[in-house]
Design the sequence.
């Protein structure tokens, strides 16, 4: 393999590692939603951590797209990951907006909406890991 392809493979592996961190972070948020009452400060910190992982994954994927040789078989898969990451970013930011907008009743009033978003993100992150495994062998 060329140095470019080796660098791309390493970058995809880095992105998979970050995706595993995203999955762990969103799973942690889901566990926090099961608490009664929910510690809004801890939940907000967890959301912030998740957002950091999502942004890190985007930066790695953008670099992977830049270093991929023209015509590389992983490029279509990286484009799919890019689209999914925009959805993940919006959902993660949406969690933050819901937490910030929580009324005096606190975050507990938003548990159903937050749980729905957490479940969606878990599926998205798992799908991203699967896609990047395919990109790695492309």
Sequence:
């Amino acid at each position: 393999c060329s140095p470019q392809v080796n660098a791309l493979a390493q970058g995809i592996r880095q992105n998979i590692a970050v995706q595993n961190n995203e999955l762990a972070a969103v799973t942690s948020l889901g566990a926090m939603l099961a608490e009664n009452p929910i510690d809004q400060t801890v939940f907000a910190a967890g959301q912030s951590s998740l957002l950091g992982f999502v942004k890190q994954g985007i930066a790695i994927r953008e670099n992977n797209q830049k270093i991929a040789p023209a015509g590389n078989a992983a490029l279509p898969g990286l484009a799919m990951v890019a689209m999914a990451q925009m959805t993940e970013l919006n959902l993660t930011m949406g969690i933050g907006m819901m937490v910030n907008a929580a009324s005096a009743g606190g975050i507990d009033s938003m548990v159903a909406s937050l749980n729905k978003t957490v479940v969606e993100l878990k599926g998205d992150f798992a799908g991203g890991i699967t896609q990047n495994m395919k990109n790695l062998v492309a």
